[in-house]
Amino acid sequence: MESRKWIYAFEEGRAGMRDILGGKGAALAEMTSIGLPVPPGFTIIAPACIEFTRRGEAFMKELEAPLWAALAQLEAKAGRRLGDADDPLLVSVRSGAAVSMPGMMDTVLNLGLNDRSVEGLARTTGDARFAFDSYRRFIQMFGDVVMGIDHDLFEDILERVKRERGARLDTDLDAAALEAVIAGYKELVERETGRSFPQDPKEQLLLAVRAVFNSWNNERAIVYRRLNKIPDDLGTAVNVQAMVFGNRGPTSGTGVVFTRDPNTGERVLYGEYLPNAQGEDVVAGIRTPLPVSELRDRQPDTYRQLEETCALLERHYGDMQDIEFTVQEGRLYLLQTRSAKRAPRAAVRVAHDMAVEGLITREEAVLRVNPEDIVRLLHRNVDRTAPKTFLAKGLPASPGAASGKVVFDADTAERLGREGEKVILVRPQTTPDDIHGIVAAQGVLTSRGGMTCHAAIVARGMGKPCIVGCEALAIDLKDRVFRVGGHVVREGDVITFDGALGEVYLGEVPSVEPELSKEFQTLMAWADEFRTLGVHANADTPEDARRARELGAEGVGLCRTEHMFMAQDRLPVVQAMIMAETEDERARALEKLLPMQQGDFEGILEAMEGLPVTIRLLDPPLHEFLPDLEELAVEVAELRLRGGDPQALREKEELLRKVRVLHEANPMLGHRGVRLGITMPEVYAMQARAIFQATVNLLKRGVDARPEVMIPLVGHVNELKKMRELVEKVADDVRRESGVDFHYRIGTMIEVPRAALTADEIATEAEFFSFGTNDLTQTTFGFSRDDAEAKFLHHYLHEKLLKENPFAVIDAEGVGQLVRLAVEKGRRTRPDLTAGVCGEHGGDPDSIAFFQTAGVDYVSCSPFRVPIARLAAAQAALRERKKAGAAV
User: Rounded to whole angstroms, how far apart are CA atoms 323 and 156?
Assistant: First the structure.
């Protein structure tokens, strides 16, 4: 049996081999194939990483023969041997998974240098400073990544030598000073590891490959995969590539360029360039780089070649590119290209503009934007008219307003975030180890780094506000303060910043709603052309309904009447209704509630004129409107002990008695929903009257009101039949009293498995089904959501017993099958049955992709998720169309 090919030279690969070559390897292969200036190299495929994880050193032994064969081919192309004492070939060793994971895994540069080859490099280049600078970089990076020595220990040695030599920047150190740094580094390696720094180039290469494989399972990579739903079994490829040097003097340098502005989407080259530097200097934020446009003035021919290359790659890939490049003594080399991460606003503009430019189709433009990015477009911005105390200005790395307490480390950010505190992570610069703190923070502020440093890339990808390179901040991590312009800001103090402007302010500053661009409106119009699912909104107030309509909602899929009962001016009336001992007492309380409810319904129906508004009658158990049982018991006990006012005590005792009567062992499965309507029909009758009287008032004013009455928690057709009779009687009464005819529909929520299983019977009484997938998930799994999420669900997810939280993403194999079955059975009885989804899953893109195939007519979600649902529904329709076409 032929053994597997573990290694591919760049010229053997293509873009379509991304799954095995990884994103970086596939891009290097593709750029090589189209003739771009890429230093030669080879890729160890990603499955080798998984094989190494499984078999360890036994696999590394097996890999040696093909590795040395690939190295020999590379040496022949380069005309130099790895680590040769006279004219050494040096290589970079870089990770590269199929899915981009920026900064999460490891890289080693300048591999092949040792005590002899550094002298040869100095002779062949005629530049001793360059040679020793490359060697000290290699020892530091190899010592950190491969040998596990703290990066800061190397930095301490470098800073000490700089102080001794009076050097401000690394570039101020001459060859002799760098030799002193190298000597200090080698002593550190021996002290920390008990062995001398490896001198054999092949041993260096094997150790570096092993370290890159191991980095697939480092903590930061695992966290990143979990956050971004990246499978653990992909592995990372390893790219071994001949080095080119940006630290060869003033006509050399390194940079990162985006083919369009990643914050705005504008069609201009955007990026940074560091003269006389290597790539890690830009990404690590060690030195503040220059705008890439300055390369135009310094080296116009090189800049023109860069422009032409950017245009070629954008046309070739049909997407905005993020390109890493090095200039060695005036010659341009490409080290990486990938689809660029971009801020949500830029994602929309780039997709729109590329469709207008003819680079992609409108369908591709709609598929190109991540639906979750849309909600980030709705981030608030700092109110520019509000009074504020300006502190500093940095580089605007990721837009949005952020306010919170200052914290100086990721662990504190994570801890306070879990406790519900809003925090701003403030660091000199972030590293991949800070990712958990970035996730927990409202925003990230750094004093160093540029627009393509770690903090900028990660925050932008998460849609979090971020400012980098805010050099005016003097951050003291030991005392946990920063100083700027006479202000001392301590940990726990509140600051605000605007990631679009790069400005930092003292204290909390108000924020304002964003304005949606014309490109956004056009892209959403294209999405509406392609989607087949309707999109409604969950709205409990006229303001919610108006906002939802502005964002494209085609109706209200769920209006929760109990939310209206919670208002402070109504709660006493609701409590009086619950506490009533006689039908007359309850009727008087309901008479007071009727006009309140009617006014609510008029506002919502008017805001949605001409569109359906589905109003759910009272659903939660009545005890939710009364004081907490334990707190009330304590209050009564204290009144008794203190000998309090007898009248007050009697009232509290009566309230406690009622609360105890209403108390249930399992209220989510108890006296709620349709069961309340059956035992207290006067409550549902009042609500139905409020709906129909509101409808009549609006019709008299010429407003096209379209109410739909929804009965919750039905499990048996007889429950719905009884409530339908009640609602129809109230409607007939209102028609007779007002002399106005009106149209309405009656339906039910499908929230328990029995309703789904008997949907054909329930459809005899229901004109529409609305799937309450929150409760349907609870009742199908037998989970109490609050208890599950607090007690054990995270263990299920961590142990991969469940792929997703079923309350966030629909359980397609279980709950989803009940939805599909109920739709099919319901339409057998009533072919014109409307089916919608009004649980939180209605705004989740992955769930919407399932609902596209399940036969439902619409999804309903919170107002701010309406644009997400519109885009996700369009993408689901396009993918279904593509799949159907492929099947044919």
Answer: 32
Strand order in the sheet with 487-490: 474-476, 481-484, 487-490
* C-alpha separations of 213 from 9, 17, 63, 108, 352 in Å: 19, 19, 13, 13, 39
Residues contacting residue 356 through CB under 8 Å, at least 6 positions apart: none
Q: Could you write out the three-class secondary structure of 498-510?
A: ECCCCEEEECCCC
Choose, from 352, 379, 436, 454, the residue flagged as catalytic.
Answer: 454
Measured in degrees and rounded to the nearest 5, phi and psi for residue 318 equal 65, 30
How far is residue 52's CA from residue 652's CA, in Å, rounded to a whole number? 69
Task: Report d(CA 710, CA 558) in Å as an integer.
Answer: 9
How far apart (Å, rounded) are the C-alpha atoms in residues 685 and 730? 7
The answer to whether the Cα torsion of 160, 165, 167, 171 is positive or negative is negative
Instruction: Round to whole Å and give the CA distance between 586 and 423.
Output: 48
d(CA 125, CA 721): 90
Angle among Cα 600, 606, 610 to the nearest 5 degrees reads 135
H/E segment holding residue 537 = strand 534-538
Query: Closest Cα to residue 609, out of 563, 657, 555, 660?
Result: 555
| Residue 794 to residue 796: CA distance in whole angstroms | 5
In whole angstroms, how large is the CA radius of gyration of the chain? 33
Which phi and psi angles does 703 have, rounded to 5°?
-95, 130
Bridge partners of 426, per DSSP, are: 445
Assess contact for 101 and 224: CB atoms under 8 A.
Answer: yes
Is 838 among the residues known to form the active site? yes
> Can you point out the beta strands (E) in 208-316?
236-242, 253-258, 270-275, 290-291
Burial 662-685 (b: 16+ CB within 10 A, else e): beeeeeeeeebbbbbbeebeebbb
Q: Please count the other Cβ atoms lying within 10 Å of the Cβ belonging to residue 741.
A: 8
Is the overall model pTM greater than 0.85, yes or no?
no
* In 542-627, alpha helices (H): 542-550, 561-565, 571-579, 583-607
Rounded to whole angstroms, the Cα distance separating 658 from 639 reads 18
Predicted confidence (pLDDT) at residue 427 exceeds the cutoff of 90: yes
Q: What is the largest CA-CA distance in the chain?
A: 104
Catalytic residue among 453, 470, 559, 838: 838
pLDDT digits (tens, 9 = 90+) for 361-406: 999 999 999 997 786 677 678 887 789 999 999 988 887 899 999 9
Told to judge if 454 belongs to the known catalytic residues of this protein, a careful annotator would answer yes
CA atoms within 13 A on the CB side of 709: 27
Q: 3-state class of 393 per DSSP? A: strand
Q: Which residues pair with 474 in a beta bridge?
A: 483
- Burial (CB count <10 Å: 0-12, 13-18, 19+), residue 212: buried
Residue where the block lists tokens 């190109």: 368
The lowest-confidence range among 63-77, 289-303, 353-367, 596-610 is 289-303
CA gap 147, 432 in Å, rounded: 18
- Calpha distance 656→634 (Å, rounded): 10
What is the distance between the alpha carbons of residues 63 and 43, in angstroms, rounded to a whole number?
A: 12
Kindly report, residue by residue over 851-880, the tens digit of the pLDDT: 999 999 999 998 878 999 999 999 999 999
What is residue 366's three-state secondary structure?
helix
Residue 143: how many other CB atoms lie within 10 Å: 22
Residue matched to tokens 């949605």: 608
Q: Do 762 and 826 meet the contact criterion of CB atoms below 8 Å apart?
A: yes
Q: For CA atoms 42, 46, 47, 49, give the dihedral sign.
A: positive
Instruction: Tell me how far apart the alpha carbons of residues 442 and 405 are, in angstroms, rounded to a whole number.
Output: 9
DSSP secondary structure of 312-357: HHHHHHTS-EEEEEEEETTEEEEEEEEEPP--HHHHHHHHHHHHHT
- Residue 234, helix vs strand vs coil: coil
Q: How far is CA 465 from the centre of its chain?
A: 13
